[in-house]
Amino acid sequence: MNWTAIKSIYVFEMYRFFRTIAQSFLAPVISTSLYFVVFGGAIGSRIQEVDGITYAAFIVPGLIMLTVITQSISNASFGIYFPKFLGTFSEILSAPISFIEIVLGYVGAAATKALIIGAIILVTAFFFVDFSIQNPLAMIAFLVLTSVSFSLFGFILGVWAGNFEQLQIVPLLVITPLIFLGGSFYSISMLPQIWQSVSMFNPVVYLISGFRWSFYGSADVPILTSLVAIGFFTGVCLTVIWWIFRTGWRIRQ
Amino acid sequence: MPDIVQINELRKSYKGGFQALKGINLAIRRGEILALLGPNGAGKTTLISTICGITTATSGTVTVDGHDIVANYRAARSIIGLVPQEINLEPFERVINTVRFSRGLFGKPSDDAAIEKVLRQLSLWDKKDNQVRELSGGMKRRVLIAKALAHDPRVLFLDEPTAGVDVELRKDMWDIVAKLKADGVTIILTTHYIEEAEAIADRVGVIANGELMLVEDKDTLMARMGQKQLDVLLTDPITEIPAALQSDALELSEDGTTLIYTYDTRSERTGITKLLADVAAAGLVLRDVQTRQSSLEDIFVGLVKEDAA
To answer: Which residue ranges does the record assign to the ABC transmembrane type-2 domain (chain A) (predicted)?
Structure first.
């Protein structure tokens, strides 16, 4: 394992993050604050408690997940697409490193950025809502798993994308609806039976449910099912990346 | 010592059947400067990209200092540096960071003294904290070289290092290449410019249509170039060279109007005076006289045209 090379990619990617620090930090903080004001304050005051929790507190885990998932995908996809776009990726290809090391460097940096932003949102939430975390270790584990698995997904997206439009289209058309329909702002049990069944095909439901369980001890689906689902998603992403690695698809002609 | 780079029957075909490399065989000697000449699309960049790991070969093998570039890619690539043709750099990154990144990427531990040495060598030390986008085109090219040298490679590939570069910077590049050679680095550069190959190369290879047409010591090529031809244009065409004029160096053009005399400019006697006297003695009337020199360019163009035909 060429750890020096992994570290180089990781540090270089983190530099990019800190160079655009205002954009990196402020944007998610402002948008989350707006969610709290609109959903928590304006709408939440008219909604009864959900599963014994105030609505404002109920949406905290969902909001964190929303941001961590979108940030993981955009960081990782941009991180790998941008060097491809600039042509600097040829240097990576000519370096004495394996594809595993490339993935570790880029995905590690993307996941770290998403985790940092997730933590910032958690802290921001304390300013708006009164809540506590029952199972902090499980919460951290869920955050790490989510950011890693969706960074892997973002990496695949960035390798696949041939232009900036393609880079945007999957998050816009697939991921955002999945997150919004994944129970960020409501409990799945509030839906009619038929939509509850449909929701079970949405992988994000398991993530948000499991993450909410780590906060309040209650969940839409059993915690073990959540873990299996996220494990399965990570496995699929790793398999696709392994295949990209084997074939050089969209990477090496 | 064995050759540092060994290329055997290297082929590269793209989807759709285009053959970029058609069985290249080439041995690159340790410590030499090899210039690869060829027109656009000849396969120069594909050859370099394949050796460096950016594209994969369809068949054939390459070893670098005895390490196979596929089976033992880590050992092979860690001693190779590549300066790409296009100026591909992160525009918002600082110069010193991009060079540090390259060193780490090739597995070398961070070493500020080594980075400083490379940046000073390329007159970039004053610009080390500038963002890449603030630099001129020539400076950016230096940054590319600095990145390629950051891990102390033993073999350096320069893909058209002086394309679109002004005369002064081109001379600077040649100086840099000469210094690297003095340090024992083997250098392979591609170029369109014949004068560049003449100025700095030890050997010259010509590539056209994915094939290596020739590889020769530059001095051998220069010797060929030392030959000049004298065209003696006659007023009245003749059918054969008069017996008194018969010699290996003299030919008659197909239409019979021109006597073509080949001679060596560097020899003490070129034989021109005698030839002209003999021509007059044979009763031939001269219409005009002109000389031609076959340059490396002529040889090059000849080879490329031959291949296209």
So the answer is: 19-248
Beta strand B258-264 with B250-252 is antiparallel
Closest-CA residue of chain B to A98? B74
The domain locations on chain A are 3-247
CATH number at residue B164: 3.40.50.300
d(CA B284, CA A98) in angstroms, rounded, equals 75
pLDDT in tens, B87-105: 889 999 999 999 999 999 9
Domain boundary among B203, B222, B241: B222
Give the C-alpha separation, B269 to A103, whole Å.
Answer: 70
- In this structure, is residue B103 part of a structural domain? yes
Amino acid found at B66: G
pTM of the model: 0.85
The answer to whether the Cβ–Cβ distance between A88 and B90 falls below 8 Å is yes
What's the pLDDT tens digit per position in B28-63? 999 999 999 888 888 999 999 999 999 999 999 999
What residues of A are in contact with residue B109 (Cβ under 8 Å)?
A: 4
- Gap between the Cα atoms of B291 and A50, Å rounded: 99
Domain span at B265: 228-293
Rounded distance, CA B86 to CA B107, Å?
24
Let me know if residue B302 belongs to a domain.
Answer: no
ipTM: 0.88
Q: Which amino acid is at B187?
A: I
